[in-house]
Write a structure and sequence with these properties.
Helix content: over 70%
Distance between the termini: 9 Å
Order of helices and strands: HHHHHHHHHHH
Number of strands: 0
Number of helices: 11
Strand content: under 5%
Shape: globular
Radius of gyration: 19 Å
Length: 318
């Protein structure tokens, strides 16, 4: 009984570090959102993969087990494809269309909701009362956030005939899609970390899939001239996003090894407030009334779910 609070605290701590890291990475990604989404996401994965290699080579040279079972590796690769194309690529595209302050809560709200469903269907994890209460709150928040961005687009007198509003709608759907993809990837990573393998193994596999798939897609779309035309400042933004993302991914993986997926995403959801602040202060993204209410509802949903986590922690401490 004495070790449980320690594990809970450690899991929450790594989850909080992941949230801070992902917020910083999203800021860098937002700064390069005008460039090819596949290439940006691929370069980010390349940095993550490169930083993982030494952590895999060292135990491999010592004769230690590095990779999970063949069956789990296949599942991880499939989840990585979904996480990279349905997650990273879709999220990067949404940053261009609807901005940081909207993409993050849409993504996280969908991720929390789908994590509860995925955990119930595949992991047979119970849907507790706090989860059932928070899910409609998240859905309402997602609706308001999407509507808020659409209303803002219409009020700016953009040329709707050229599809401005349509692209905003697509951007909102992409942010939601990324949340669904991340929830499935997180579930598979948690299952994978049950094996006695290095923490960085699932990180490396996911990053390798992104490096090959997204860099390949980006290179095909841009061509040699397009890649060479990317300015140094943009390369710096992509690289910093990759380095910070690697640190955040590591912290998230450690947290997933300790806590259920739902509670990891709960702690990680503190990105909502940080993204709203960063979007307004750094990129001048407007915050309308509907958007503000949507963000507030997202935070409320997280607080409802966190009350259960805090109650569990208090019970364990007693």
């Amino acid at each position: 009984m004495e070790t449980r609070p320690t594990s809970l605290t450690r899991g929450m701590m790594f989850g909080a570090l992941a949230a801070i890291g992902y917020t910083a990475a999203n800021v860098f990604l937002r700064s390069v959102s005008d460039y090819n989404s596949a290439w940006v996401s691929g370069v980010k994965s390349l940095w993550t993969f490169s930083l993982c290699i030494p952590w895999l080579v060292a135990p491999w040279l010592k004769g230690q087990r590095v990779f999970p079972s063949a069956k789990m590796t296949i599942w991880l690769v499939l989840a990585a494809v979904m996480g990279q194309f349905g997650g990273n690529l879709a999220f990067q595209f949404s940053l261009r269309q609807i901005g940081l302050a909207i993409s993050v809560p849409l993504c996280l709200g969908t991720m929390i909701t789908s994590s509860a469903i995925v955990g119930r269907v595949w992991g047979r994890e119970p849907l507790r009362r706090s989860v059932l209460i928070s899910i409609p709150v998240f859905l309402l928040a997602i609706t308001l956030l999407s509507s808020g961005r659409m209303v803002e687009t219409a009020q700016q007198d953009l040329d709707v005939e050229n599809g401005s509003l349509i692209w905003v709608i697509i951007g909102c759907w992409c942010a939601a899609l990324s949340g669904l993809a991340y929830s499935i990837l997180g579930f598979v990573i948690r299952r994978c970390t049950h094996d006695e393998i290095p923490i960085v193994t699932p990180m490396a596999i996911v990053a390798m899939v992104g490096t090959i798939g997204l860099c390949g897609l980006g290179a095909e779309q841009l061509g040699v001239e397009g890649v060479s035309a990317i300015p140094l400042q943009a390369w710096l933004g992509m690289s910093l996003a990759g380095v910070v993302n690697a640190a955040a991914f590591y912290a998230l993986t450690v947290s997933l090894k300790i806590l259920p997926v739902l509670y990891v995403h709960l702690v990680n959801s503190s990105q909502v407030a940080m993204a709203a602040i960063a979007g307004a202060l750094i990129f001048g993204e407007p915050v309308t009334l509907l958007i503000g209410i949507g963000v507030a509802l997202t935070v409320l949903g997280f607080l409802v779910m966190s009350s259960e986590s805090q109650a569990k922690a208090s019970t364990a401490a007693d």
